[in-house]
Amino acid sequence: MFSERLQIRTTVTSRGITVVTPAGEVDHTGAPALEEVLTASGRLPCAVVDFSHTAFIDSSGITALLRANRSLRAAGGWLRLSSIPEGPLRVMRIVGLDHVIDVYPTLHAALRT
């Protein structure tokens, strides 16, 4: 998927966990696409967002993550966040997102548990 400033790559692990890797800025132009990818039906409702290539996130991105988390949990699954650079992580901590969605230092750690 692609928006003006965000590219999203999706892979599925052998255990059926969806790994979503946004690259660029998760803002009002890209947040809807991120939410759509995370809540796509037909998959195991478990996903990890690997933020290692994300430079920025705004309130639209935070809202997309909260909505996706609610949808995945309602379907019996979960959402985890990993590899978040300092700038986006600071924003997530300020709004308390790290108290609602589990945050892991690496993708490997998020997939391991």
UniProtKB/TrEMBL annotation:
SUPFAM superfamilies reported in the protein's UniProt record: SpoIIaa-like
Pfam families in UniProt: STAS
Gene Ontology MF, one: anti-sigma factor antagonist activity
UniProt-listed InterPro entries: Anti-sigma_ant, STAS_dom, STAS_dom_sf
Residue ranges constituting the STAS domain according to the UniProt record: 16-113
Similarity field: Belongs to the anti-sigma-factor antagonist family.
PANTHER family for this protein: ANTI-SIGMA FACTOR ANTAGONIST TM_1081-RELATED, ANTI-SIGMA FACTOR ANTAGONIST TM_1081-RELATED-RELATED
Protein's name in the database: Anti-sigma factor antagonist
